[in-house]
Amino acid sequence: MLLRHGRSTSNTAHTLAGRSPGVELDDRGREQAQAIVSRLADVAIEEIVHSPLVRCEQTVEPLARARGLTPVVEHRLVEVDYGEWTGRELKVLLEEPLWKIVQQHASAAVFPGGEGLAQVQARAVAAVREHDARLAELHGRDVVWVACSHGDVIKSVLADALGAHLDGFQRIVAEPASISVVRYTSTRPYVLKMNDTGADLSGVNTPPVSGDGARAEVSGSVPGGEVRL
């Protein structure tokens, strides 16, 4: 389960938070974090993994407390390093020549003084796949686990799971506190949900393993994952 952090103070300020210190959930974001507990009430969750940034830590805290789980910090799920773009207003960034590249040719986009979106996808996909394989081996079956991260990071993982080129990842939306679900199998990933903000996610519980123990098969964005209205 790819969980985007709840609404943050940067979201409402319309700035590109990046890895800026001190960016926390706002009042609505804290409500969203608490609501995740009930949204996932009927889902068996084996582990919670999250980006090291405080807004992700705050998002998973109510769920971790309710389930008695100790979250695992995964640095490869951290927000994009936007370099010199960090903390700037989105309306100002719209005027930057790089903006069009980010929108239309994301695989070539490298933020000044920061990292490239192709690097982001590589690290995030590697992290998600490694944790998924580890937990499947540990439990001897497919399990549900939560990875709490950031908009662009989640969108890049979903693009990989969909078999889509990174250049099209801006077509994917990941709103604050949304949940997307990918099931990884021995042959290919299956995307079960995207940008789900609803209340009932019980349908993502994993099916039983097959008789041989194989994992079952199942038949306008901006940087940071914001949505311009």
Automatic annotation (TrEMBL):
One of its GO terms (cellular component) is cytosol. The keyword Translocase does not apply. InterPro entries: His_Pase_superF_clade-1, His_PPase_superfam, Phosphoglycerate_Mutase, Phosphomutase_MSMEG4193_put. It comes from the Bacteria. Coiled coil: none annotated. GO terms for biological process: negative regulation of glycolytic process; regulation of pentose-phosphate shunt. It comes from Rhodococcus wratislaviensis NBRC 100605. Residues 1-27, 201-229 are annotated as: Disordered. One of its GO terms (molecular function) is fructose-2,6-bisphosphate 2-phosphatase activity. The keyword Transport does not apply. This is Phosphoglycerate mutase family protein. Keywords: Hydrolase. Gene3D superfamilies: Phosphoglycerate mutase-like. SUPFAM superfamilies: Phosphoglycerate mutase-like. CDD domains: HP_PGM_like.
